[in-house]
Amino acid sequence: MDRLTFRVRPGLVTGFLGPNGAGKSTTLRMILGLERPTAGEALIDGVPYRELDQPLRRVGALLSAGDVHRGRRAVDHLRWLARAGGIPEARVARVLELTGLSSVARRRAGGFSLGMGQRLGIAAALLGDPGVLVLDEPVNGLDPEGVVWLRTLLRDLAAEGRTVLLASHLMSEVALTAERLLVIGRGRLLADASVKEFVAANGGSRVAVRTPDPEPLRRAVVREGARVEGPDETGALLVSGMPAARVGELAAAGGVTVHAIGERTASLEEAYFRLTAQADAVAHRGGA
């Protein structure tokens, strides 16, 4: 992996994206001092994690919710972490309530569903009331209600001025939760931008046109140098490189009936795949 230079800003949820094997989990482990970089350094508030005073109060982390003794009760797991981190035991009841686990606090972790185990991992990350949160795939196993709960929680924590770094492969959830993105691929930092800036730079917009007679309009648009895809799953032609007004003029001039026409902005997923495909193409050309 090349040297990655980025800064995660406080007061925002930052999404951390990249293909499988790009190095997301390795990067998080280096931030948390679990792996040493071959060059450079990972700092939290200006110092390496290993040098932090009372690290559980400074940084909350969720890398794998399964790292819990299966025979230990949820409340005892959190009490053990609190004692080890010098955290008041009253905080245990608070995070159990916050994560919706108060009613099952005395159940053993081995009997938890995947979603309940994930909530316990989130409770552990929040135990020290940290200013920094580092979370790897935190919605894994959560039901739809739990996903909405976590989304709201993370945005609220960021609004309090905390730093939240969220690694995920679920583009739709990142789009709804994160305000800023870091994207890595092939060992390089591909993007460091707000979600809005990222989509605008890599996704673009297209004109969606629904018509019962698409072929004459397709030919007219292509003659003027625009690109046409589709029809898509909604039955719309997707026109790139031409404003909606001009598409409408061409349809009218050709006597083409139009049922609907409008701008369609690319999704985060579309923008992400376009960027990573371009990065792959550049890498293949460089290696040829």
What does the model show?
It contains 11 helices and 10 strands. It has a 6-stranded mixed β-sheet with strand order 2-3-4-1-5-6, with helices on both faces. The protein has a 4-stranded antiparallel β-sheet with strand order 8-9-7-10, with helices on one face. A hairpin with a 6-residue loop joins strand 8 and strand 9. The radius of gyration is 24 Å and the shape is elongated. The relative contact order is 0.14. The model has no long low-confidence stretch (mean pLDDT 91).
Individual helix count = 11
Helicity, in percent? 40-55%
Rounded average pLDDT: 91
Distance between the termini: 20 Å
Q: Report the strand count.
A: 10
| Structural class estimated from helices and strands | alpha/beta
β-sheet strand percentage: 15-25%
Low-confidence stretches: none
Radius of gyration, CA atoms, in whole angstroms: 24 Å
Largest sheet: 6 strands, mixed
H/E series, N to C? EHHEHHHEHEHEEHEHEEHEH
- What's the shape? elongated
Strand order of the largest sheet: 2-3-4-1-5-6
Task: Give me some keywords for this one.
10 strands, single chain, 6-stranded mixed beta sheet, 288 residues, 4-stranded antiparallel beta sheet, alpha/beta
Would you spell out the secondary-structure blueprint of this structure?
Blueprint: E1 13-17, H1 24-31, H2 55-58, E2 59-62, H3 74-85, H4 90-98, H5 114-126, E3 132-136, H6 144-159, E4 163-167, H7 171-177, E5 180-185, E6 188-194, H8 195-202, E7 205-210, H9 214-223, E8 227-229, E9 236-240, H10 244-253, E10 260-265, H11 268-287
Parallel strand pairs: 1-4, 1-5, 2-3, 3-4
Antiparallel strand pairs: 5-6, 7-9, 7-10, 8-9
